[in-house]
Amino acid sequence: MIFGVDTASVAGNKRIDWAAAASAGIAFAFLRTNYGDQQDTMFAREWPRITAAGLVRGGYLYLRHPRLDLGVKTAPTPESQARAMLDTLGAYLPGDLPPAIDVEFSGRGRVDTGLTAGQLLGRVRAAVELVRTELGVWPLLYTSARVWRDDLDNLNAPELAECALWLARYYVPKGPACLGGPMFGQMPWPPVPPPWGDQDNAWVHQYQGDATGCPGFPTGNVDMNRFKLLGPDGARVRWVQERLGIGVDGELDDYTAQAIKDFQAARGLLPDGVVGPRTFAYLAWQKPA
Fold this sequence. Notes:
Elements (H helix, E strand, L loop, with lengths): L1 E6 L10 H6 L2 E10 L2 E2 L3 H10 L3 E7 L15 H12 L10 E3 L14 H19 L4 E4 L1 H6 L14 E8 L2 E2 L27 E9 L9 E6 L7 H10 L9 H13 L10 H8 L5
Parallel strand pairs: 1-2, 2-4, 4-5, 5-6, 6-7, 7-9, 8-9
Antiparallel strand pairs: 1-10, 2-3, 9-10
């Protein structure tokens, strides 16, 4: 099992020991770059420390929308929010994950935004397109099947299927951080929203929110995640093949495994043929053939 965490300044983590987290098996971490167009106050401090501890790192934008229940009738444009995220991130290092966009709706969901499902999806598309234009890469998307169903009416968005999915579904309640154990053999992967089709088509699962006592986090809380390795076939194998520039048949055969090893060796990675978080990060920057 490959574990990761995500956190933001609101989680109350004052003295993060990323080396201790890495020693406990945490392999990757997402930090919030921005809440809307406002930079997260912990980002600049913690961003370089993640790399120094040897973890794979990624930044995410909490995409804001109007909140009529709070009297907030307008929100920054999605383009301005996405640009603010890129300004916060600055230069990338090899092995960093592409930026992620958080697609969720606080409060009672869509009803509190005053917008239609189509309008909200349009805002997501606008943020994604700005990242593509500026970086030439598809961002990751954080969301859930529930959000897509309840707030976005399961609208189709085939172009977004190129965005690798980071899905939330809490199978573990709030409380002590869960890092393995027998329950992981029984824990299903979360359902996938319709645009991504294949129910295997998600890379990261946020399985526990507001976890406490995670190694390296003596105060506050974090969200716990796990990374999904490739299965024998399916949409994620096709995603990898497209970025390797080889024949796309969705089968993890010997030819594909060797192509992964060659890709890893060319980038100074361990050529084991396993698409873990680091290899995934390098692949995610490749333009699909």
